[in-house]
Amino acid sequence: MEALAERLSHLDSQAEGALRVVMFYDTLMRRRVDLPALARASAGLAGCVTGIRLHGTGRVVRFSPDGEQASATPSAASGTAPITLDEEEIGTVWLERPGPPNPLDELLLDRLAIAVAAVVERYGPARTTMADPALVELAISAGSDEAARARALRLLGFAADLPVRVVAVRSQLPLDRIGALICPARPVKAAPLADVGVLLATTVDPARFPAGVRAGIGAAESPDRSWQEARTALRFTTPRQPVVHHDSLGVMALLAQVPREVARDNADVAAIARMAGNPDDLETLDAYCATGSLRRAADLLHLHHSSVARRLEQLAKTLGIDLTEPAGLVRARLALTAWRLLDD
Fold first, then answer.
1. Architecture of domain 258-342
2. pTM for the complete prediction?
3. Which of the listed CATH numbers 3.30.70, 3.30.450, 3.30.360, 1.10.287 matches domain 2-123?
């Protein structure tokens, strides 16, 4: 290459510059540099701020010609080029040249885009990372066509032949930290959507969710259906059961489809609402509905079983439900669950 450059440099100064740009990026790729190093070197070569953005993760890397990260507000791009990998556009590179474009800017951007694609292909997407919310929404939206969904999942780093599970999360903890815990050995993508966090993963271990996290786990293989299931399961979470898998709900999932005004007007649900001002009563009823046993409920509540029996007797009168009968227990559990769904 150097010999060829030497021979052609006598023909045209612009051709010489073009060959030097090509050789510059060939050298960087042989050295297997990472994205920040690519952006830093490119900014130095171009003499202006240079940026890289990956669609799948939303990651942006910008460097100034002095080798420092560009902290100023991005200027209008003087030139851009798509980053393409396997015929899919996975990102963009650009220059922020304040004056007119340089004759070699187009070539520089083209070679930079090729180098970025090589880095992404070599190292792959991060196993756990905050992803572009728009891309995640495209992957899980019921309104997306299958081609767009498949492309979004591919850009997020998920193989086409693997199912993607969706988790709906409410937590004060960072989403990427939760993702790393529940799926430590597989790719995980996380993004906030409105008031709910979304995790996409090929496998999910419910036992690995940290304390304080409420999570609903979808079961369907299709991401859009899995998302709907995850949102439904999240509504059924409680302090006693903070992680709910949609499959475990069974027929109870139908309660989520009951219109709020219908549930609110139900006599049993209204009775639960009236006793909601007494946390002890709610906790006692919840423990009894969860266990179906007076003694096991007493163990959960750390109370003597006779104390729990007296509470349940009073609750039965308040609710107008015989809690000693199996049918009454089911009725109370349905009413308690329906009341909780009103607040979601």
1. Orthogonal Bundle (1.10)
2. 0.63
3. 3.30.450
